[in-house]
Amino acid sequence: MDLARRWRALDARGRIATAIAAFAVFASVAIALTLQRDVRANLFAAPLRPEQVEEVAERLAEWNEPFAIVPDNVRVDGGRRNDLLLRLSMLGVPHAHLASLDDALAKAGPLTPQSVLDAQQIDGRAGDLANGLRGVAGVEDARVIVAPGRDATFADDASHPTTASVRLTLRAGSELSRATVDGLRAYVAGGVPGLTADRVAILDDRGFAFGEDGPSEASTLERSLQTALDGALGAGETIVRVRVDADPRSSRRRDTVRRPLAGAIASTTADERYSSREKRYVKSNASLDRGSEVHDENTDVPAGRIRRISVAVAVDSSRGADAAKIAALARATLGLDPSRGDAVTVTALAFPHSARASRSIPLLSIFESLASIVPASLLALALLCAVRYGSKPFAEACEAIVTRVRIERGTRAVSSYAPAHVRGALANEPPHTAAAIISALPAATATAVLEMYPAEERAAIVRRMSRVAAPVVPDHETILRRA
After folding, report:
1. What is the pLDDT of residues 86-103, one digit of tens each?
2. Which residues touch 185 (CB under 8 Å, ≥6 apart)?
3. H helix or E strand, kind and range, residue 313
4. How far apart are the first and last CA of the chain?
5. How far apart, in whole angstroms, are the C-alpha atoms of residue 367 and residue 470?
């Protein structure tokens, strides 16, 4: 009611200005909502699970790709959809959904047999364990198979304890230490009742067991140097390969050290005499041992002793890195011994740059954001200019239309009245309104009405009646002149 009262209290010009402002606001909001509407496409045709959506979002964030998350999918730019699908499929992302324990129990009903329920619980626990192993650093994918234990039914049957097999797919360049593998065994054993860590087998894609001997010396040195170079030059700028030559022979060395306790360890004297007169020959020998300390040391050198380490480093030639500094960094990082024959070779090569397209993605994202903001900004600026410079001419045009309508209504209302009634109806009207209404009356009625006006007002009305009728909407020259 308050708004309606205020609206009725406004004059014609105020109503027109309010209507123009309201229209401009609604138009701006509608255009802004239209421009901000999400026009991206779903990355996958089939809906994804929540963990799959999270996995895809992490990959796209690593590549600096713009995306939007919806409950069961990820939305990306339609022009980038095929390229992103190709890159994700090459990495095996997203991984296949594994039913969890909650999913398995959700399918169980009140009439489900206990044997089926037990099997579903085992599969659900295996799925939960596999999903947990996928989050371990360096593990790309994991699959867990649990074989439940079985007690002997008859006397001649043998019981079987619960066992588990784990297959891990590692990321390129990743290795698991012995401590990590032991921890994974304990993790799997803790998730299955009745399972012990010694009955958990962890295999790689080729079927080899993890953690028997731990990572090799060469792989440890290679990873150490690769990490140092990645931190100094950036990931993907260098390739490191380390070769460790080991001596397959075993040997044993014995060292005996004898130290005197005081002075010389021992002394020997010899005396030999001959007398021709007495025809006698005398010979005597004497030895003195003062005591000593003897240290006997036996050293066994097993097979596998490092005989030589060779390091090869390939550097992207576009980086322009100093090969001498890289070689010095490699020698210091790996603790190479030149006297042993250790050597470092640094070579500058032209690396393929097709995989670096993601580096320009942040700039493209900025341009895409600007492209989505600029049209809305320009439209808002155009609306502001239109309201600022066009509101007055538009208000005048609308006022002329309202005046014209009022004149037509007044003319139809007073056309059948007597001259005295017409004069009374036009008592408070301005001269141009009275002139417009009187000019539409019959000649006799118009003359009688004019005779009732004072001389000055009658002259003003007659002057306006003699003009050419103004159009409802003024021409452009009139509008520009008024503006």
Report:
1. 888 887 888 888 877 787
2. 197, 198, 200, 202
3. strand 305-316
4. 36
5. 52
